[in-house]
Amino acid sequence: MRSKTRPGLVILFLLALTVTAPALQAEEVPARLAWADRLELGTPISGTVTKVLVNPGDRVRQGQPLVEMDTRALQAEEQQARAQEHRLRLARDEARREHERTREMYDRTLISERELALAEIARRMAEAEHQAAQAALTRVRLDLEHARVTAPMDARVIARHVAPGQVVHNALRVQPLVTLAADGRMLAVADVEAALLDRLSPGTEVEVRVGDRPLAGRVLGLGLEPVNESLPRFRLEVVFSPPEALGLRAGLTAVVVLP
């Protein structure tokens, strides 16, 4: 005799399977913290450092002076370049007036066409020399600006690489003077398998957990080359903005919770 299954028992059985089945959990991967925007600042000029105005750990504002170089030689060069520009400006103006006088005499048929051409050449040469003097003055003034290194953004000072009295040579390679990290942004960096990266795209919202503190983050970068040739894992970068009170530092451990 065939037994009949009651509908109520079937429903209870399905509910029991739902309760006892393991819940799907988000993927958690270990990560380490890094600075989101790390920048080594230097100057294209060579010279002697006179002032270092910051120390590691300081917070600086955009435009705040960080390092100053000795500018006495540059100031002398600027004075010389300014005098040269002034002299050649006067010579240019006189050459222009002479050219106008020559043209008037030519129009009155008092001089030959060759004399007018020579006056035109003299005017153009005087204008070219004055332009070169202006360019030389601009270069010196740019060097004077570069003698003071300022913060390009609101940041924290990570390291200082020079001290007052130190001579800096930047002929072949610019020597870093101060290292900054942008304030308010950090990275959680993890090495993950390619299958996990395939689930993500730049901008995907994820969670970064530091200790027991969950923080909102988003995917910034997905590595395309393996971190280690012998181990096919790829770099995952997640950017987030931690509260200042947490006092986070690069190198601390964290967890990235992937959806």
Could you tell me the radius of gyration in angstroms? 35 Å
Enumerate how many helices there are, as a single number.
4
Helix content: 25-40%
* Total DSSP E strands: 14
User: Secondary-structure element sequence?
Assistant: HEEEEEHHEEEEEHEEEE
The overall pLDDT, averaged over residues, is: 89
Strand content: 25-35%
End-to-end C-alpha gap? 52 Å
Strand order of the largest sheet: 1-10-13-12-11-14
Q: Sketch the major β-sheet.
A: 6 strands, antiparallel, barrel
Low-confidence stretches: 10-24
Q: What structural class should be given to the helix and strand makeup?
A: alpha+beta
Shape category: elongated
What does this structure look like?
The protein has helices at residues 7-20, 72-107, 113-146, 194-197, and strands at residues 27-35, 38-41, 47-52, 59-60, 65-69, 148-150, 155-160, 167-168, 178-182, 186-193, 205-210, 213-228, 231-240, 253-258. The strands form 3 sheets. A 6-stranded antiparallel barrel has the order 1-10-13-12-11-14. It has a 4-stranded antiparallel sheet with strand order 2-9-7-4, with no helix packed on it. The protein has 259 residues and is of the alpha+beta class. 34% of the residues lie in helices and 34% in strands.
Question: Tags for this entry?
Answer:
alpha+beta; 34% helix; elongated
Compact overview of the structure:
This protein has four helices and 14 strands. With 259 residues, the chain is of the alpha+beta class.
